[in-house]
């Protein structure tokens, strides 16, 4: 077990299976020392646990927890192309999309769910630049979607 997966276990988390693509793309691709993930929905066992808009049908706290699930799914996607999460040198960038009710402006707090999970799991390697964007709708009416870019330790 990698040190990263041991830390996940210590936090009571398990790395899920990679979420299959919903369309014509790969869950993650490697280019040199970087891995870019596709946007990860908060899928759990092949389905969304909650749907709707944040600030409407979905509370900000629920959405924050879903963002953490997205980050966990993103780590699974990274592992699918590099084999070992201990190869992560650092998380470079996180981009989070929040399906928002018209008057909802708390997107940064929602995406903190992903950022906090990456920090808890990876420590200083999880510190990253980030964007948190409100959108009208996401695939499958998901409340949140997260993508990450990681830099790998040189081969």
Task: Give a verbal description of the structure.
The structure is a single chain. With 155 residues, the protein is an alpha+beta fold. Helix content is 30%, strand content 23%. It has three helices and five strands. It has helices at residues 3-10, 60-82, 107-122; strands at 28-31, 34-37, 88-99, 129-135, 144-152. The protein has a five-stranded mixed sheet with strand order 1-2-5-3-4, with helices on one face. The chain starts with a helix and ends with a strand. The model has no long low-confidence stretch (mean pLDDT 97).
Write out key terms for the chains shown.
3 helices; globular; 5-stranded mixed beta sheet; 5 strands; single chain; 23% strand; 155 residues
Uncertain spans, ≥5 residues at pLDDT below 50? Answer: none
Number of helices: 3
Shape: globular
Number of strand segments: 5
Can you give the mean pLDDT? Answer: 97
Largest sheet: 5 strands, mixed
Give a quick rundown of the structure.
It is built from three helices and five strands; from the N terminus they run αββαβαββ. It is an alpha+beta fold.
